[in-house]
Design brief:
360 residues, 10 helices, 28% helix, globular, 13-stranded mixed β-sheet, alpha/beta, 3-stranded mixed β-sheet, 3 domains
């Protein structure tokens, strides 16, 4: 695929590397310019520089966030795959509503450059009112942005004005899946990581393509390790990429994520996947919640349910839980935390949350 990296079309205007450099010098010292805009121009400067790598920050969902050097060649190939997969064309309108501090935002910029498309950049905290009047060919959001839109009277109509919408950063609830499944536009949830330059697979959420399984992008395949964790075979990497995600394979290019191996709770010698238990409880708990554990001398760990918010009466909730879970699956404690520790993309930091309830 032929591509160019000589300029970007940003908000309808063409910017050369020199113009970007000048604009960056102006806004980085201007306290009235918002951080998200400064981050965009700083990344553009980095992209058009002579270096072969881009410095990116991991999300911190499985440990401390850390910077890594990601080859621009890997990012270019990733952009090309996405453009081809979704059939995007020159001069298409791309919506950037994610911060360029992390890989998801950076990759939307790279796709616009590679595909010579018009990138419309907005504040990630926007209410998306402009979607009532404007249409986009491609966009990406984190679940929290989609959740807020679905809560608006015209939220469905706004979302449908994005022809191809990627949802990523963290998992989504069954309720949200049901809501977006009826959209006339194409909505997918992505699977990937910073190291792979954004997504390597997508799962269709709407229309007749709707599926429970992720489908790998062209050229990428998967396998399972000895402990049933997903392994990614990526053409831009010499070695297999090992993940901590427990998975089920439908084929070598199609898979389903079951949970994380590092979040498994062992109680009384039995292994429990908190993600699987959480799926079972989604229909009876409206607040954000998490299955965690506390130490126990006899069992090793005891299952605990943690709910975000102020303490409330739990008798009725416990009765509902008794119906949905087996005796051994039922949490032995219910905790309330006013605010959950999360990453920027909205993922709950399970280890940090566990530490908080163990101190309470």
């Amino acid at each position: 695929m032929k591509h160019t990296t000589s300029h970007i079309i940003l908000n309808g205007k063409q910017f050369s590397p020199e113009k970007i450099q000048n604009r960056t010098a102006e806004i980085t010292v201007n306290p009235t310019v918002p951080d998200w805009e400064k981050e965009l121009y700083l990344f553009l400067n980095e992209w058009f520089s002579d270096t072969e790598f881009v410095l990116v920050q991991t999300s911190g969902s499985t440990g401390e966030p850390k910077p890594i050097e990601l080859p621009k060649s890997v990012m270019l190939k990733s952009a090309e795959r996405t453009i081809e997969y979704f059939g995007l064309q020159k001069n298409n309108r791309l919506l950037l509503s994610l911060p360029c501090r992390y890989i998801a935002g950076k990759m939307m910029v790279v796709r616009a450059i590679v595909g010579q498309m018009n990138l419309i950049a907005v504040d990630p905290a926007t209410d998306f009112d402009f979607l009532e009047q404007e249409n986009f060919d491609f966009g990406a959001m984190v679940p929290n942005q989609v959740f807020k839109l679905l809560g608006q009277p015209s939220g469905i109509e706004k979302l449908q004005n994005i022809r191809n919408l990627l949802i990523g950063g963290s998992g989504i609830s069954l309720a949200m899946e049901a809501q977006v499944s009826s959209l006339s536009s194409r909505v997918v949830i992505t699977y990937g990581m910073t190291e792979t330059a954004s997504h390597i697979a997508i799962r269709e959420l709407s229309g007749n393509r709707e599926s429970d399984f992720y489908q790998c992008l062209p050229g990428i395949s998967v396998s399972l390790s000895e402990n049933d964790c997903l392994q990614i075979h990526h053409p831009e990497f010499d070695e297999v990429l090992q993940t901590n995600d427990l998975a089920e394979l439908q084929s070598d290019t199609s898979f389903r994520i079951l949970g994380r191996s590092d979040s498994v709770i062992i109680s009384g010698g039995i292994k429990y996947s908190p993600e699987a238990l959480e799926k079972k409880l989604e229909t009876v708990i409206n607040e954000r919640f998490n299955i965690s554990s506390v130490p126990d001398e006899k069992l090793g760990e005891k299952l605990a349910l943690v709910i975000e918010g102020k303490p409330t009466e739990t008798t009725i909730l416990e009765q509902k839980i008794d119906v949905l879970l087996t005796t051994f699956e039922r949490p032995k404690f219910i905790y309330f935390l006013e605010h959950f520790p999360t990453t920027v993309s909205g993922k709950i930091k399970r280890k940090e949350l566990k530490q908080l309830i163990q101190k309470s």
